[in-house]
Amino acid sequence: MKKGLLIILALTILVSVIFAQDNLLPGRLNKAVSQRFPEKYRAPEATRADSCLYSFSVNPTTLLMSFYDYMIGGYNDLPLCVQPDPLYGGYFLTFHGKRTATGQRRVFYGYIDDSGAVQNLNEITNVQNWEGYPSIAVDPVSGKPLYAWHVQLQTANDPYDIQFAYDAFLSGAAGLMSDPTVIVNNPLSMPAPYNTTDEEYLWPTIQIGPSPTAGMRRAYVLNRNSTPHVSGVTVPSESAYIVYADFNGDMLELGSPLTWSTTSIPTLDAWNHATDNTFRRPNYGFTVGNDGKIYYVGYHSAGFVAPEGDIIEPELDAFVCDNYGAGTWQRIRGTGEYRSWGPQNNFGTGDPWMTQSDNTTPVPVDSVYISISDSAHLNAVMDDTTGKIHLLTNWAPFWHEGTIATELSAYYASDMQFIKELVFDTSTNTFSTTEVYPIAGTPTDNLLWLPWDENGDGVTDAYWDDDPTSTSYGMPKTVRLWPFPYWDRTVHTNAMFFHYGNTKITPPNAQGMMAAVWQDSNRSRYYNEYPADYPELAPYADAPEIWISCSPDRGITWSEPFSLNKVETPQFAGMKPMWVYPSDQVKYVTTTNEGRKVGKLALMFYDDISWGAYCIEGPVGQNDGGYVKFTELEITFPVAGPSANEDNIVTPELKMLKQNYPNPFNPETSIRFNMPKNGNANLSIYNTKGQLVKTLVNGNVSKGEQKLTWTGTDNNGSRVASGLYFYKLSADGKVETRKMMLMK
């Protein structure tokens, strides 16, 4: 018996060692300084005016018991997508998992119907290869999902390739998969001046945008380089290699092969092959717009290789390619270092409280700034209405010390991180930020939340004065936050912040509703680090939490977050939720009489049996697996605050009339519109000459969402010809018009 167990253990270790290479590895970590003094505890306030109300529309449901307990979807993706066809609804999803402790890691797909019932769940392929980090996008016209993932097709010593497949999804039946196609056949070669032959691109992100060809859409798959080429650095700079192809719904139903073209980003290629003793690493999200452009947006870190140190330069980047990915790449830069200030001891009259890395030398109060931190696994989403790209990021106080030639060393307060939204405006090519949690004043004012100045008035909030003999007497009270799903920063060879950082944001839906999702384990940290000081937090000793904040107005204002955890949430009793992904949009339900929008947000997450990631370097927990879960919340959003309508803020007008679905269509299509109140409405269809073809409604209509169907006939019941038509809604004193295409 013991010999058998040893063999199984050996096999488990062997498998984890062989395949560890396809996990993202941390590069040079931020230099952290921890100010070890009494902390001011802070938790979300569920009774605030900007809080959300929520209930479970689908209780947590187990999809699979899996023995792969780390980052179950793509690093920079939302692998849970709304099915847009109103006839079927529901969600498509993808993840990787292992059915047994010693088995292969496989990529799965799933379809969950509108009621929350699992209709289909299985591996995408039927070959026992080592697969991982899948991405999904759903065609907005045909409602069919497209998948990409990386896979080791041969032996453990061969490179990974990128495979692609799509689901025909005929009549609501999921799982009609095309044959998997290799769209990136690694290793790739780079021409002069690099002259390399070993480039291996992994971790795909798939997006769908418009095509320059009428009746087609374009699928883009961005892949990240896993091969390091900078001398003296063992981790890659992750340059990007993008493949793209046009398709339509008929091609997906017929199983037609796609023809792929390629592009790469010259600046990132140069970073990955730098020979000037510098190393830069991108942390970007990939998205596309309806403007025919593709975007790779986020921040990068920069440093000298030897002697090691930080390069101080603008770190925000937006790489933009026009002409549907076939054009020229442009780089727009911005700075994410926001000048701040540090508090002082002795009730604000003494030495600076923050110290340098020796824990003794004070940091001048005017040398502190805030910057993005530990946000490698962010995603980017496009708001096509405003042209703004949104990312959810961690921020922390930083300062510089020491010089080596032109180099400075940067340190940060790692236990003072907080959540902000980074926004890139594609119309002005500018970056901005919005506070998500915590918030000083309102999200749209110029007040800056700081751990020692929560109201943003530039004055330290409070000091420790309970015991004049204490070493903390007269020191500022500071709030410590912990936006990570594990309490111990030292695990995984001090790389917990890198591996566990997982901030995700959803794009605005037609009603402007967004969700920001991250994790927190601050209450667990308080108890595990200070058990005598916080005995009341003992139930949270092993309780990672899911935190969700909501925006009713396209990210202008954000709600007080709410927490899902095993202590306070009955539906999560006994669970340890990890690696959380929200659905790619909030599904609008209704608007209350008080003007509060109601929507549904789905979540996919991993319920860990032994808390921590066993399967990556520096294992935590046990190799006893966990459960991939699905759940759905119905959330009543707060009303947008007065700050959302200030003179300097342009609030996008919400449209009543939605795009028809499907489009193009044959023989019928659905048209939906929202009535802000009871009243008369006229919805009519016109041809390109402006002649009335069909009146679908003309009379009193109730408040709320309405759905009508046009079968391609005119007012006389005769079938109309193929071509372009306009449908116009007149209601609430407004007129809105959209286009649609009838194809026979």
Describe the fold and architecture.
The chain contains 7 helices and 42 strands. The N and C termini lie far apart (68 Å). A hairpin with a 4-residue loop joins strand 24 and strand 25. The protein has 744 residues and is mainly β. Mean pLDDT is 89; it is low at 1-20, 403-407 and 643-653.
Instruction: List how many beta strands DSSP finds.
Output: 42
Question: How does the overall form come out from the CA principal axes?
Answer: globular
Biggest sheet: strands, sense, closure?
A: 8 strands, mixed
Q: So what's the oligomer here?
A: single chain
**N-C termini distance:** 68 Å
Unreliable spans are 1-20, 403-407, 643-653
Helix content percent band: under 10%
The averaged pLDDT comes out at 89
Beta-strand percentage?
35-45%
**Helix tally?**
7
How is the topology of this model organized?
Layout: H1 2-18, E1 31-32, E2 53-66, E3 80-82, E4 91-97, E5 106-112, E6 118-123, E7 130-138, E8 145-152, E9 161-166, E10 181-184, E11 188-190, E12 196-199, E13 201-210, E14 217-225, E15 240-247, H2 249-254, E16 261-264, H3 266-272, E17 278-288, E18 294-304, E19 309-310, E20 316-321, E21 329-334, E22 338-339, H4 345-348, E23 369-372, E24 380-383, E25 388-404, E26 407-412, E27 418-425, E28 430-437, H5 491-494, H6 496-500, E29 504-505, E30 514-520, H7 522-529, E31 545-551, E32 562-564, E33 577-582, E34 587-591, E35 597-608, E36 626-636, E37 669-675, E38 679-686, E39 692-701, E40 704-710, E41 723-731, E42 734-742
Parallel strand pairs: 1-26
Antiparallel strand pairs: 2-36, 3-4, 4-5, 5-6, 7-8, 8-9, 9-10, 11-12, 13-14, 14-15, 15-16, 17-18, 18-19, 18-20, 20-21, 22-23, 23-25, 24-25, 25-26, 25-27, 27-28, 29-30, 30-31, 31-32, 33-35, 34-35, 35-36, 37-40, 38-39, 38-41, 41-42
